[in-house]
Amino acid sequence: MSVATSAVATKPLRKRFNAGALPWIGPAIAVIVLMVLYPAYTMIKTSFMNIDETGTSHGFTGLSNYRTLFHNPNLVPVLERTLIWTVSVVFFTVIISLPVAQVLHAKFPGRRLVRYALIVPWAASVVMTSTSWLWILNGYYGVLNRIMLSLGLIKDQVQFLGSPTQSFAWLILVAVFVSVPFTTYVILAGLTTVGEDIMEASTVDGASGWQRYKHITFPLLRPALLISMVINLINVFNSFPIIWVMTTGGPGYSTDTTTTLAYKITFRSADIGQSASMATINFAIILVFIALFLKVSRWKEND
Amino acid sequence: MSNALVSTKKRFTGRKVSLMISGWTIGLIFLAPYIEMLITSVKSKAEILAIPTTYAPQHWTWSNYVTIWKQLPLAQYLRTSIVVSLSATLLVLLIAVPAAYYVGRNKFRGRTAFLFLVLVTQMFSPTSLIIGIFREVIRFHLVDTWLALILIYAAFNLAFSIWILSSFFASIPIEIEEAAWIDGASRIQALRRVILPVALPGLITAFIFTFISAWNEFVIALTIESSPTHQPITVGLESLIGQYQVQWQYLFAGSLIAIVPVVILFALIEKWLVSGLTAGSVK
């Protein structure tokens, strides 16, 4: 009955408003074109142009900026590192967020306060959070050194950000730290849709906790996981402040990702053309990343 | 029978205790860097450079907060942060609500193209487009203005808001709206009086996401805003990071002044957050 009425009532209205999609979506299109697509177009165009340090253009140079970039000895290691960075941060974020969400979904005294605590890294500026970590990890005055000395885990002060490999591991840890809260909340939202009655029914059926999680909860969380992973993938790949604050991609270029490398080429080498080509390649990479991810997770099948 | 009851109860409380322990540990871990910020912000300069460092301050130097407030134009920075973030957020809602409503409710020609456009914007970050943005800002004489930041922040947060709101609008049964139409309400009236109140969690979520991302943005503001009167607090605090020496106590006091208001704002809407994200995570 209600379906029939709705069909009757909707039809003339749909028709009437159909011609007028533009007033509704027009402003959004305008802002996107002006503030996102236009800069993107400018950037891609710039990647084919010869621009000097003062920002003056000397016309098109074809692929010369890309050629310079491909001859940059730092490019390949940085690309490899970017892959490790993105994949490991997203992976560990999800692996940690799943149990955290499970705990915060259950009822226990003080849950509200713990949830408040979890939103702090989400609400706080990543620049400031990274600065705090930098201070905690300080090789002379940092509190982590003190804690580890007190526990007898180390005998002398340790320079946690001393070697490139160690620094990079800490950068990944901090990136996971700031990504977990958002991811946990998306999973929490997914958990609320699982529904108490399904869980109760399966408990009555004698399913163990783990079985229930594996066969009922986890499959139902798929949409939430997929969305949080895509968003994390984009954010982590584009992430700039953590690396910039903690190591500025150094020593040398040893902890750079493509995002910080592009920034370095812009503002240190003042090579605008080469930097634009790096940024253009970045965008191509993120497109490939997402296409691959959606293919692997068989997004279409789910639709 | 009573034995069985007791053992269930025991297991139950045991579960509760382990939940409590893991829950509180999680909370503590995620608060740790901010607790350390607070501790450092009330240490004296001499104590900060003590080796090994002290866990708690020996002298609680709360005057650091007064000093930083006098040393830097913090009120000015905060004003910029508030004006820019609020304007960007309102602009996003003003633009995203009608678009999301239309997309969530209608099938029309160009719908897929529009959604694709939105998805593509989500993939860009302002940092990755910095060269393009900077050249555009120069071209339109928007260097060192609030307007540039407002427009940029609004544009880059539009996608998420449209996505979350359109799933919300799509999840509201059309019958609710039709009842209003039958009562003689126009479509816009129905949207305002019937749909928006139901979509409130989605609206709040979109609001808070945009506000926080605008409040915390750093790289674009650093690049575009050169005069202190136009710099938000994230950039303003940068001046405390010298080339050779960082004034940690002041840096962290200033950081906490910037962090606390957003955390309170966020905490106030926490209970809406899960339901706000639910529509988006199911769709």
Task: Explain briefly what this protein structure is.
Chain A is an all-alpha fold and 303 residues long. Chain A contains 14 helices and 2 strands. In chain A, a hairpin with a 5-residue loop joins strand 1 and strand 2 (57-60).
Give the tags.
heterodimer; A: 303 residues; mainly alpha; MetI-like fold; 14 helices; 2 strands; globular; disordered N terminus; B: 283 residues; 2 domains
Distance between the termini of chain A: 27 Å
Unreliably modeled segments of chain A: 1-17
Overall mean pLDDT of chain A stands at: 84
Helix content of chain B: over 70%
CATH class membership of the largest domain in chain B: Mainly Alpha
Give the DSSP E fraction of chain B (strand runs of 2 or more residues). Answer: under 5%
Question: What share of the residues of chain A lie within helices?
Answer: over 70%
What characteristic shape of chain B results from the CA principal axes? globular
CATH topology of chain A: MetI-like fold
Which CATH architecture of chain A would you pick?
Orthogonal Bundle
Describe this structure in words.
The complex is a heterodimer of chains A (303) and B (283). In chain A, helix 3 crosses helix 13, helix 4 packs parallel to helix 8 and helix 10 packs antiparallel against helix 13. The longest helix of chain A has 31 residues, at 75-105. By secondary structure, chain A is mostly helical. Chain A has one domain (73-302): Orthogonal Bundle (MetI-like fold), CATH 1.10.3720.10. Chain A has helices at 2-18, 21-46, 64-70, 75-105, 111-123, 126-136, 143-150, 164-192, 196-204, 209-238, 241-246, 258-267, 272-296, 299-302; strands at 49-51, 57-60. Chain A is globular, with a radius of gyration of 25 Å. Chain A has a two-stranded antiparallel sheet with strand order 1-2. Chain B is an all-alpha fold. Chain B folds into 2 domains: 2-41; 72-282, MetI-like fold (Orthogonal Bundle). Helix content of chain B is 76%, strand content 0%. Chain B has helices at residues 2-41, 45-48, 63-71, 74-105, 111-123, 130-139, 146-171, 174-182, 187-198, 200-216, 219-224, 233-236, 248-268, 270-282. The longest helix of chain B is centred in the first third of the chain and has 40 residues, at 2-41. Chain B is globular. Chain B starts with a helix and ends with a helix. The model of chain B has no long low-confidence stretch (mean pLDDT 86). Chains A and B meet through helix 1, helix 2, helix 4, helix 5 and helix 6 of A and helix 1, helix 4, helix 5, helix 6 and helix 7 of B.
